Amino acid sequence: MSVEPRWFEDIISARTPVLVFRDFLPPVMSQDLIRDLELCAESIRVSSYLNATLTTLGPYLAKYVSCPGEYFRQVSDIQPVLPQSLTNMECTVYQLVMQWLQLEALNIALEPVLGEYSGSVVRFHANGIANPLHNDNISRDAAGTGLIVTQVTQQLSCVVCLQACTSGGALRIFNKRWGLEDEQFKVEFQLGYADEVVDGYEFCEFSPQRGDVYIFNPNFYHEIDHVVGTTRITMGFFFGLTDPKGKEAIAWS
Ligand SMILES: O=C(O)CCC(=O)C(=O)O
Description:
This protein is an alpha+beta fold. The protein has one domain: Jelly Rolls (Sandwich). It contains 5 helices and 17 strands. The strands form 4 sheets. Strands 1, 2, 3, 4, 7, 9, 13, 16 and 17 form a 9-stranded mixed sheet that branches. The longest helix has 17 residues, at 84-100. The two termini are 26 Å apart. Bound molecules: 2-oxoglutaric acid.
């Protein structure tokens, strides 16, 4: 099973805003992982911004672009705590993405001297939580750090839905790619961009269900609607191409 090569282009250009493999994970796999995540409750971190709260297990690089050494320390501290079921899930989904996009390699990024990146992050969106409008672009956000992930040619986001919320929690992807001129819409100490930046742009809404795996281009503005009811739990990672033929990729979170 693989997608047409043209589809890869379509995700990058967002002609296909989100590519979904519905119900990929067998229920037992997500149930086992959620049970194991409860045992790691002490390692779950809450990052607060003026307009958002992110609750995560495992570090995400965007938080540490001004201190990458701290990111790699966090990666090595959390590694022994993470359950095997999370590593297994990561491997299964990497295999799926490779097959899907006809990649010859997809490996966790390795930084010379500093070590391995985090291969995924688990995100918890409890009742009432939303994620503000933002876009992800590591070449921009970590520019000047010399980190190898800043050299990828295309950055895509892959998300696995481990537990769906009762309602709300939709991912909304706007048909608007980030541009330098958008920096005027950034608000200090807040996560993301003011809503005006996507005024008049079309969007696509996707409500993930348990077991779904989806891929989209995070350089296009996106946000997550307020969650209602059961906590929305996802595992996600970014990946980007490292060779001119578009066959090799590295992943990080
Ligand atoms: O959880 C989601 O649906 C999307 C998460 C996100 O913002 C991203 O992967 O960039």
